[in-house]
Amino acid sequence: MVRIKVHELRGKTRTELHNQLKDLKNELSLLRVAKVTGGAPNKLSKIKVVRLSIARVLTVISQKQKTALREVYKKKKHIPLDLRPKKTRAIRRRLTKHQESLKTERQKKKELYFPTRKYAIKA
Amino acid sequence: MLYELLAATSKKADDKTQALKVAKAVKSGSTLKKKAKKIRTSVTFHRPRTLKKERNPKYPRISAPPRNKLDQYQILKYPLTTESAMKKIEDNNTLVFIVDIRADKKKIKAAVKKMYDIQSKKVNTLIRSVDGFSSPCFACYSHLASHSTVNDMGGISEQA
């Protein structure tokens, strides 16, 4: 059997990928029947190959879908939760960099007029 | 400048006339008495019906709906090839499948139609926990199969 190569899959369109998926799943069902009815060993060994290629096709499909969705939501203000950075729950709840950097007018003026000075002592 | 002055004076005049109007209304007493006291015919107070708006989210919470993981390939796992199953194929015109446990009879019927183009008249199911299987699986019988499809499935009838 032709070993499915992922970089070839990535070039295909969605419909092509779905058709390939259907073919692979059909093949898998036939192989499963062969397993039950005592099929030849070359068929039985094919099961693993087909299973993994199905997994590869599904991965490529979902990756393509995700990247396409990210493109759609790039400009928008609100993005769906699974497209937002995952990190950890605590990190997501922290203040943003901008929020942390905010200072009151009072503090800004203080820093402007009374910055910490550095002195050098003459020997 | 002149225009602003004029506007200011006219505004003043407007306010004055409005104030006079309100004073008149209050004096006549009609504004206060307009709302008659609501008659309550029941002892209990029920929450009045308020406006219920439909959902109109600004963004979908999940970016795309998840794919159907229980499709016909997942439902029908493999046919059963025991002697009694073979008997059923020949005598009772039925097929016996091992089926995913999450499938119901309707889904099984549809899956069989999709996979093998069989119109099943009836589907019986039972849950079995077979030795070694941690997850129990359905076995299902569906009627109205033709022997040609049995051959298509991988020559089961030849085994018998």
Automatic annotation (TrEMBL), chain A:
InterPro entries: Ribosomal_uL29 (IPR001854), Ribosomal_uL29_euk (IPR045059), Ribosomal_uL29_sf (IPR036049). GO terms for biological process: maturation of LSU-rRNA from tricistronic rRNA transcript (SSU-rRNA, 5.8S rRNA, LSU-rRNA); translation. Coiled coil: none annotated. GO terms for molecular function: mRNA binding; structural constituent of ribosome. It comes from the Eukaryota. Transmembrane segments: none annotated. Pfam families: Ribosomal_L29. GO terms for cellular component: cytosolic large ribosomal subunit. Keywords: Ribonucleoprotein, Ribosomal protein. Belongs to the universal ribosomal protein uL29 family. PANTHER family: 60S RIBOSOMAL PROTEIN L35 (PTHR45722), LARGE RIBOSOMAL SUBUNIT PROTEIN UL29-RELATED (PTHR45722:SF2). This is Ribosomal protein L29. The lineage of its organism: Eukaryota, Viridiplantae, Streptophyta, Embryophyta, Tracheophyta.
Automatic annotation (TrEMBL), chain B:
It comes from Ensete ventricosum (Abyssinian banana). GO terms for cellular component: ribonucleoprotein complex; ribosome. Belongs to the universal ribosomal protein uL23 family. One of its GO terms (molecular function) is structural constituent of ribosome. This is Large ribosomal subunit protein uL23 N-terminal domain-containing protein. GO terms for biological process: translation. The keyword Acyltransferase does not apply. Residues 16-65 form the Large ribosomal subunit protein uL23 N-terminal domain. It comes from the Eukaryota. Gene3D superfamilies: 3.30.70.330. The keyword Ribonucleoprotein applies.
